[in-house]
Amino acid sequence: MLCAPLLAAAMASEAPAHDGSAAAFTSLLFVFLLATFIGLGVVTRVSRLLHTPLMSLTNAISAIAVVGSIVIAGQDHPPVITLLGAIALAASMTNIVSGFLITDRMLRMFKKPGGEKRP
Amino acid sequence: MNFWLIEAAYLVASALFVLSLHWMNDPKTARKGVLAGVVAMTLAILGTFLNPGIVHWGWIAGAVAVGFLIGVPLSWVPLTAVPQRTAVSHAFGGLAAGLVGTAKFYLWQDAPENLTAFRTFAIVAEVILGFLTFTGSLMAAGKLQELKWIPQRPVTYPLQNLTNIGLLGVAVACGVALVFQPVGLASLFPVIVALALAFGVLLIIPIGGADMPTVISLLNSYAGLSAVAMGFVLDNKLLVIAGALDGSSGLILSIIMCRAMNRSFTNVLFGAFGQVQQKASVAETRTAKRETPEGAAQVLEMASQVVIVPGYGMAVAQAQQRVRELYDELTRRRIEVKFAIHPVAGRMPGHMNVLLAEADIPYDKLIEMDDINPEMPQTDVVLVIGANDVVNPAARHDKASPIFGMPIIDADKARMCLAIKRSMNPGFAGIENELYFADRTYMLFGDAKAVVGDLVKQLQSSS
After folding, report:
1. pLDDT tens, B280-313?
2. Which of A91, B181, B323, B405 is 20 to 30 A away from residue B363, measured at CA?
3. Is residue A75 part of a domain?
4. Where are the domains of chain B?
5. Is the CB of A19 less than 8 angstroms away from the CB of B232?
6. d(CA B435, CA B457)
7. Looking at B31-71, which runs of residues are DSSP E strands?
């Protein structure tokens, strides 16, 4: 709650310009670098048992391309561009839906140690 | 106002994506990881809807509906087909990235001030990575599905690597030219797209079935990197972060797969593994010893520790349920049963674990190669079901063998080895297995499902 005034102040301020400049590019490069290290650190600790579900989960996560697809498909552009965006959106949505569903389906199968019988 | 809401949604989504992968470190928390991923994705999508200027809601709703229509059935595939499904979704990921890059490039032709050198560079990277992942993954999926019109064996021709690298080189060169003249040389863009599509196909053609786990992991990484490139194009940190997580995950899995086969990336990509080895050892007529299911059942009953080495052959024969029954029969007799899982067993990383989990084998009985090998000398019986190269002792000493140096499960060091096999034909990689001719090895010939079923019957009747 303490951060509410801060948030309000931030919201009142102008959105920074996105200009594809060298500065913007470098700051993204930093983000990429750090995210890669975090990814390497987190994924090395993933149980080897779960490497197949891991891959379907990261499949779904990398379908974050949905964000770009929505903008292309949704904004007012020539029909060809809208069509490209819509195809990209359908492809990303497919990955999100099937990726999360199948990951959960596989993870449900991993029975706890002890080997209790099927009910 | 909207800007900050979007940023806040993206920030929370980034954190949840990292947590989602973090929770995958243990089967107990893994499902929470999926939930975190779903929440993060929902936030990201809702946040994106707040973007100014989004008007084509009909298009969006239609595309989302199509995604659900394809995605839901795609999540019902049998677990043996999960590698193909994964490859297909890498293809979709690559396609989405490639199309968004293409759309942005042509949109900005009318506002060239947006096509800075950095952005054009990012677009070129996105499009090359995206489209090569698209066709490459489709080829990989076709090979895994064993489609008739896609050659299973590696296709090689003279100067193949030179051609491939040359093609990619031309695409990169066009890209560099485009960075300097994004509008004047815009006609080079379709050339780049076409070259990337062709390169994806040519990259997979020479790769054999045994290398598929590595290739799938590598394509996973490419799909992630194409999302990263999209993040650079759209100036979007969430895309960069989520793409980087996917990219690094694919990279780690590829490294694990390569290590498990003692091969390098370049060797996998350019080595054309899995070609039929024309060995001169035709004169060799060693004979393997046979065992009957009755005899094998008696041997198993006398054991105190049994290690089962499953391979993809077990899944092909749909023998998992029988294996589970065998596991039950043996554990009931207080025999310790463990499963030895080689990292490249199955057709994608971790495939065997999922197949056994589906058959209700508790996951603490699935032991990794490095942890089970020290126990092998104290193991009474090793039962090899549908595995071949991963138990071939030739990998340890035969320098001429194509699998020399590959870490293997030491099935030959156990007191006795029983191997279930359809016939004496060499396996997928076309390599003869020394294990079958060893002194302590006995063969059980037949379909894996039928043989394990017989073993279970023998054990049931003797109790």
Report:
1. 444 355 678 889 999 999 999 999 999 999 998 8
2. B405
3. yes
4. 71-270, 281-462
5. no
6. 27
7. none
